[in-house]
Structures are given as C-alpha cells and as structure tokens.
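This week, look over our next protein:
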Amino acid sequence: MWRDVVLVAVGGAIGTALRAGITLAIGDDLGPALVPLINVVGAFAIGILFGWRSRMPASSRAQRLQLFFGTGVLGGFTTYSALAVEAAEPGLLWWGIGSVVLGTGAAWGGLVLGRGGRRQR
C-alpha cells in the first residue's frame, strides 16, 4: 500500500514539475490558453493510458504503472484546479466549461486510441 502512495506522489511531483516547466517556457506566449491546452493534452494522454491498460492482463505491475503514470504523472500534469480558479470569474465561466468539454472529448478519443479502436465490453 505505501509503495502505491509513493508511486503516486513521485509521479505527481514529476507531472507537476513538467507542467511548471512548460508554463515557464511558453506561458507568456500562450497566456490564458495554456491551462486549457495542458488539461486537454493531459486528458488525451490519460485516455490513451487507460485504453491501453484495458487491453493488458490484470497484474500488480500494470496497476502500479497506471498509478504512477495515470494518477501520478498525468494527474499532476493536468491542472483543473487552476482552471477552476480562472473560470471563477463570471466572465470566464465559458472558458472553464469549454475546457472541460474539450478535455472530456480528448479523454474519450485517447481511450478509443489506447484500446486500438475496439469497444470495451
């Protein structure tokens, strides 16, 4: 159990550092579009991971990989909390709603891609 917590924590630190690095490198160029872009890309990657994982046989190793990369790295990379803060301003509510809709679509597309185009039963 503790090993799983450490995997998520280390993965989350990596994902958060990756997001922070991207923000520092190109944040000024993209402005407020960066947070939704990061979230949509992260949601797509999570979809791919979970789709790919659904094709694998159940094992503790596969579960740990999902915890590290999905919950940890990609969970730390996406930043829906920052989006919520940005969208809390009434004039930007559409920004938050649009990002969630696009992120959901991206996750679905990634899931289909990760499953190899096959429907899960």
